[in-house]
């Protein structure tokens, strides 16, 4: 079995920081040994291949629990395939994604999962798993949930937004939550009052307010917090754990914090776009704002402080990307003259680890919290821990040798995502993945890509109830 030794680095996990060497055997972490220990000396003299991590961190590969590769939306598809999107993720030090398989209205949940499995099979550079989106909750889809949970699809997303597309009414959401409470699945909710938003969209368009910035104005923070509150109450009635995706409004954070103060199993996720971007971007000149159209929408800048605070207090527990890229030319421009036709979503899978590390550099969060938010908690929440999300004996050797001092300027000219713009164009960040390993194989090293499509394998996930 191939043996690799990562020496000289500072191992950072959600739990601790250790000056330790990491021994990899095959696809797994075999053991850690404190620097200078007899064990470390013995390893250094063995025939293991050495990766020098002096002056670097050794961290678990990122776990991005929210991506949309090749997702159909608004008459087009998100522009990253599983091949291009997972390669870009690898460049940025993310080694596992959980993507959303969509049940078509009138179709079965399983059929949706099969379509997504076929898109991903043989294509991924890194490991991948699926949540299922329930677009049509009825007796048969509820029954399907049970078998899917047994097969490793242990979380289901429901939409309070997008009437006529993915939307479920409260009764359907309640039924899915009840089923999840019984079978151990985690219910994820996109919390925005889509019915009310559609009224405001219609009024805005009728009044000639058609620019991208109106996307943010009609999708009001109050309609996010109202839906978040409602989702929490439905989850309480069902006795189900709840995971609120892509939280952007300070008022929605308050709802989650209040629920958590009561001791409820309610968890919140946010994304880098809500932490670093704002309605100022959405109000860019000409049609530029279309680059920043996503739902929930970007908020006025003052919301950011609420999100950062909640990341420190654990009222927000996970940072995922909601990576859902559409090219500016040829896709976003479907909404020229009508913001409601702009495909919703933004690119980000490549830069999550670095943007969050920037928060470490700026003193907003600590190093261990960085790893907790980006690796450990998503792995735990979605039933993959400790195989993913930590550096420990028996874990998959998904590891990143991270250079905390590397300077980079984010740009579409240098990124690897298949999209013609960067939401962070020109932004300077400190820190970058130098060497990335996926299940023991080096897939990125010092600016060279060494991975291949099909190396990534499907991860069957455990249920989440036991951890919460
Ligand atoms: O704008 C977004 N977030 N697009 C992806 C679909 C979703 O709601 O997560
Ligand atoms: Zn959503
Ligand atoms: Zn999403
Ligand atoms: Zn779990």
Automatic annotation (TrEMBL):
Class of this enzyme: hydrolase
Named cofactor requirement(s): Zn(2+)
Name used for this protein in its record: Dihydropyrimidinase
Protein keywords: Hydrolase, Metal-binding
EC number: 3.5.2.2
Residues covered by the Amidohydrolase-related domain: 57-441
This protein's record includes keyword Hydrolase: yes
SUPFAM superfamilies in alphabetical order: Composite domain of metallo-dependent hydrolases (SSF51338), Metallo-dependent hydrolases (SSF51556)
Alphabetized InterPro entries for the sequence: Amidohydro-rel, Hydantoinase/dihydroPyrase, Metal-dep_hydrolase_composite, Metal_Hydrolase, Metallo-dep_Hydrolases_sf
């Amino acid at each position: 079995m191939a043996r690799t030794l990562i020496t000289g680095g500072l191992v950072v996990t959600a739990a601790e920081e250790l000056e330790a060497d990491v021994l990899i055997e095959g696809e797994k972490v075999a053991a850690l040994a404190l620097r200078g220990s007899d064990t470390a000396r013995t390893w250094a003299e063995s025939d293991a291949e050495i990766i020098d991590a002096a002056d670097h961190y050794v961290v678990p590969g990122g776990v991005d629990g929210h991506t949309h590769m090749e997702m159909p939306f608004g008459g087009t598809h998100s522009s990253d395939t599983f091949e291009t999107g997972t390669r870009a993720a690898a460049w940025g030090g993310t080694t596992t994604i959980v993507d959303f398989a969509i049940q078509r209205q009138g179709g079965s949940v399983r059929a949706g999962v099969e379509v997504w499995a076929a898109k991903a099979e043989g294509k991924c550079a890194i490991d991948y798993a699926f949540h299922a989106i329930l677009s049509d909750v009825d007796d048969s889809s509820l029954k399907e949930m049970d078998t899917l949970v047994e097969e490793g699809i242990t979380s289901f997303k429901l939409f309070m937004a997008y009437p006529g597309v993915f939307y479920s009414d409260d009764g359907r959401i309640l039924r899915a939550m009840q089923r999840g409470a019984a079978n151990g699945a985690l219910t994820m909710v996109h919390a925005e009052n889509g019915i009310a938003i559609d009224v405001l969209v219609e009024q805005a368009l009728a009044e000639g307010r058609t620019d991208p910035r109106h996307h943010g104005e009609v999708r009001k923070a109050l309609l996010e917090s109202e839906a978040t509150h409602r989702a929490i109450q439905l989850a309480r009635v069902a006795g189900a754990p709840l995971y609120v995706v892509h939280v952007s409004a300070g008022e929605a954070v308050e709802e989650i914090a209040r629920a958590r103060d009561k001791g409820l199993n309610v968890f919140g996720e946010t994304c880098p776009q809500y932490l670093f971007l704002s309605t100022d971007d959405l109000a860019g000149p000409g049609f530029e704002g279309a680059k920043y159209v996503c739902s929930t929408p970007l908020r006025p800048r003052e919301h950011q402080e609420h999100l950062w605070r909640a990341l420190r207090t654990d009222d927000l527990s996970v940072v995922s990307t909601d990576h859902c890229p559409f090219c500016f030319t040829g896709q976003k421009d479907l909404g020229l003259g009508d913001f409601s036709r702009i495909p919703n979503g933004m690119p980000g899978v490549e830069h999550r680890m670095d943007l969050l590390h920037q928060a470490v550099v700026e003193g907003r969060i600590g190093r261990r919290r960085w790893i907790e938010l980006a690796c450990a908690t998503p792995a735990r929440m979605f039933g993959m821990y400790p195989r993913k999300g930590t550096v420990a004996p028996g874990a998959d050797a998904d590891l990143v040798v991270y250079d905390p001092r590397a300077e980079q300027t984010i740009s579409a000219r240098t990124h690897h995502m298949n999209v013609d713009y960067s939401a962070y164009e020109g932004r300077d960040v400190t820190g970058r993945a130098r060497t990335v390993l996926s299940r023991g194989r080096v897939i990125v090293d010092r600016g060279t890509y060494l991975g291949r499509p099909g190396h990534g394998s499907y991860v069957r996930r455990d249920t989440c109830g036991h951890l919460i």
